[in-house]
Amino acid sequence: MCGCTASSANTKQSSVPRPGTTLLCQRRLLPSALGKGSDLEKAFATATLVYSNAADPEDKLSKAGARTLLQTQFGCFIQGQENKPKYKEIISALEEDLDNKLEFEDFMILLLSIALMSDLLQEIRNVRNTK
């Protein structure tokens, strides 16, 4: 059991999740079509749900909300990136023009950009290569 409290597809979760919880508590939030989906499909569905739960009613995410999600949901990927110029550029863009909001596609590009430059990605790839 993942330890989350009430979860349902119609219930908005807090944009700052409690430690040790997951949005996919026993797959209850996944559409039934993904119940037997692949790991990659479920991972994408999870990212979509995290975004949707933090987005406003117009399905847009504030830059402050995006930064909070990065810190709370993507911490392992951003750890150690603070001194990299590209990471600084991404974070400074989140701190500028705070009235602008991110759409889902922009948020996914942000996640992918940070993941691709992270040290963790190389560690993950090294584990795969040593098997």
Automatic annotation (TrEMBL):
GO terms for cellular component: cilium. InterPro entries: EF-hand-dom_pair, S-100_dom, S100_Ca-bd_sub. Residues 40-79 form the S100/CaBP-9k-type calcium binding subdomain domain. Coiled coil: none annotated. It comes from the Eukaryota. GO terms for molecular function: transition metal ion binding. This is Sentan, cilia apical structure protein.
